[in-house]
């Protein structure tokens, strides 16, 4: 362990992060309806469905494997997993509620009691071990009925359906959950709208018209969720959640610097500007005009968005981006479904995601300079191939080094004056990768015996990083 001589706030929220569709399984149990994740196949075929038009929302088990159907079976094993989280010393556990577990088709007038009762049991188990849940209301699991029959978030009709869902879970769990987030990685839809918005862009369709109209519907829905939370649980905190990847210019050529600025504004800041500042930013007018976007903004929308802004920003951080206006002749760096040019100063993970801990410090400073609200790093981790040694041990020193360097960068950002709420490492237990549907892309402190072909016992095993993170939490980040 390394003593870095820095401490985080005494109330700093250490823990781990997951999503319902990537850990729960039980996809057809408890009256749950199908959601978008249930029809995404596993393996690298998933990438083409996330990015290419014409994806058919169907289950074809003769052709594809669907790892999310069982995932790691948290639905049945949550007590075992929560006990392990408690052993590590988690103060919080970031998770999501599956919308289609509560409203199977998204359109019901009354919620599914079996689904509500499941999360009651999970929250009770967490509190039994002194762990506070941090709940994302919508995390890549939109009910399939709303995808097929409404066109996902392109339809304004989805807004009141989400409001009913959000109000239902906030009311039900008002005594059990005090940290909420509305939409996971809301800005990710600029690159892959299928998971967060429930549609793929078709041939000939103006991508920007569809995506930005859907953004507007989500902004309205997010503000309605904030309104419900303020009225039902005034003492709770509710935030937005952004995929943050700081953008660097490839060099000091002013054209590339300007290009990087424009990329940074639209990808990293647009959604935050609306949800935190409460209005569309000035630069967006030109962007929307140049991309032939004509937003339908109904009476009262702007006032609602202005009044009900979020309390904090949750963010995921995995990598930075390096951008050049003319990419011809340059190697492409592709990770987390984002693309830029390769940064010659950075190494990359097994999946090509560039590793840049200083980028986390840069990103946190940029966000706090801009918004002056608390920041919560709710996703950060390394997807890697893990090997079980002959003696059963899993020596994932590469993960420890990755996390250590990012926590050090976070500590520096705190010393810079950034208001940090907490840190929840992504995939604290191995889970199904969202981007590739693989189990072999492992993030966890806890190994799950499940493989890409669906085989495995689902047994849990502690990795070396389990014990390392246990000491990090116990020392409040002072010993790394």
From TrEMBL:
Gene Ontology terms: biological process: carbohydrate catabolic process
One Gene Ontology MF term = beta-glucosidase activity
Pfam families named among the record's database cross-references: Glyco_hydro_1 (PF00232)
Q: GO cellular-component terms in the record?
A: cytosol
Q: Which domain of life is it from?
A: Bacteria
Keyword entries, A-Z: Glycosidase, Hydrolase
Q: Where are the transmembrane segments?
A: none
Q: What PANTHER family does the record point to?
A: 6-PHOSPHO-BETA-GLUCOSIDASE ASCB-RELATED, GLYCOSYL HYDROLASE
The family annotation for this protein states:
Belongs to the glycosyl hydrolase 1 family.
- This protein's name: 6-phospho-beta-glucosidase
Task: Provide the species name.
Answer: Saliterribacillus persicus
Higher taxonomy:
Bacteria, Bacillati, Bacillota, Bacilli, Bacillales
